[in-house]
Write a structure and sequence with these properties.
The chain is an alpha/beta fold. It is 41% helix and 16% strand. It folds into 2 domains: 29-113, Rossmann fold (3-Layer(aba) Sandwich), CATH 3.40.50.10860; 139-262, Rossmann fold, CATH 3.40.50.720. It has helices at residues 7-27, 43-59, 74-86, 105-111, 123-131, 139-150, 170-179, 194-198, 244-247, 261-278, and strands spanning 3-4, 33-39, 62-68, 92-95, 159-163, 183-187, 203-206, 224-227, 231-232, 238-239, 253-254. The strands form 3 sheets. It has a 6-stranded parallel sheet with strand order 1-11-8-7-5-6. Strands 3-2-4 form a 3-stranded parallel sheet, with helices on both faces. The protein has a two-stranded antiparallel ribbon with strand order 9-10. α7 (170-179) links the parallel β5 (159-163) and β6. The longest helix has 21 residues, at 7-27. It starts with a strand and ends with a helix. It binds NADPH dihydro-nicotinamide-adenine-dinucleotide phosphate. NADPH dihydro-nicotinamide-adenine-dinucleotide phosphate binds next to α10.
Length: 280
């Protein structure tokens, strides 16, 4: 039977550690503040934003909320970001994605000060990750490294296959695994003989956004499988990119959906907020 990697439990450990550090900082008169901006009322974004604010409350991080209407001009958002960049009492700025189609996400992300970019999406932070310098790192891949380490799974020297090459998950995931001395392959929609590639993996990270695509046939016996996907199945039930029922009997460890990677993403956002004060 595979080990079920409990992201809820591990994220709680991380959040409790953060809570203690936030309390200690408060004792020194320092408060951490995260500004969260949501544009429009995309229901999924509303849920994510709510969960992020709850995480702030739990750990003692102050959160400020900004809600712009879905037809707000990009200039309005950029002006708000600029104001928050300047404010000394704001340590982290998060603009919930996706933005409405009339806004240029790249321009907005680039407008956030790299020193307050707790999502780790700013090109300067991405570049820092690439060349091994300190900087903010995208929360989901950062959380996956923590899940592996805190579950006693060693990464060094392991063959890791990252399925997906997005800027927020796949690419930073591959770079972080490389930093941990893994041998890394990135696979994507143009990869030939995908099953052969994924079956090479000691650690397989699925970030494709396709419900239950990764069945047992894609997985080597005894591999560790991390499921990043958040999808809906044919019954509108939440599910991952991994077909848990066929993969669990083959692998040695697996993250469930929900309760795997998702809670870690928020925990690492709070971790980045804590780091922001050290980066000033
Ligand atoms: P994207 O859609 O940006 O990227 C998906 C990647 O998967 C692309 O690189 C694409 O390849 C690849 N891909 C798509 N279909 C196939 C296929 N049939 N075979 C091989 N590769 C394929 O998604 P994200 O990276 O943003 O997110 C991935 C999943 O993770 C989603 O379900 C998302 O909801 C979830 N997610 C979960 C988070 C969490 O906290 N748990 C956080 C962020 C995302 P190509 O580049 O060639 O098009």
């Amino acid at each position: 039977m595979a080990m079920i990697i409990d992201g809820k439990e591990i994220s709680l450990q991380v959040k409790d550690e953060i809570k203690k550090k936030v309390e200690a900082l408060k004792g020194q008169g320092k408060e951490i503040t995260l500004a969260v901006i949501q544009v429009g009322d995309n229901p999924a974004s509303t849920v994510y934003v709510r969960n992020k604010k709850r995480g702030c409350e739990y750990t003692g991080i102050r959160s400020l909320s900004y809600e712009l209407s879905g037809d707000a001009a990009e200039e309005e958002l950029l002006a708000l970001v600029e104001e928050l960049n300047e404010r000394e009492d704001v340590n982290g700025i998060l603009v919930q994605l996706p933005l409405p189609p009339h806004m240029d996400e790249d321009r907005v992300i680039s407008a956030i000060s790299p020193l307050k970019d707790v999502d780790g999406f700013h090109p300067q932070n991405v570049g820092n990750l690439c060349i091994g310098r300190p900087g903010f790192v995208s929360c989901t891949p950062l959380g996956i490294i923590q899940l592996l380490k805190r579950s006693g799974i060693s990464i060094e020297g392991k063959k890791c296959v990252v399925l997906g090459r997005s800027n927020i998950v796949g690419k930073p995931m591959a770079l972080l695994l490389l930093r941990e001395n893994a041998t890394v392959t990135i696979a994507h929609s143009r990869t030939e003989n995908l099953k052969e590639v994924t079956r090479e993996a000691d650690i397989l990270i699925a970030a494709v956004g396709r419900a239950k695509m990764i069945t047992g046939e894609y997985v080597k016996e005894g591999a560790v499988v991390i499921d990043v996907g958040i999808n809906r199945d044919e019954n509108n039930k939440l599910c991952g990119d991994v077909d848990f029922d066929t993969v669990e009997p083959v692998c040695s460890a697996i993250t469930p959906v929900p309760g795997g990677v998702g809670p870690m993403t928020i925990a690492m956002l709070l971790h980045n907020c804590l780091e922001s004060i050290e980066r000033e």
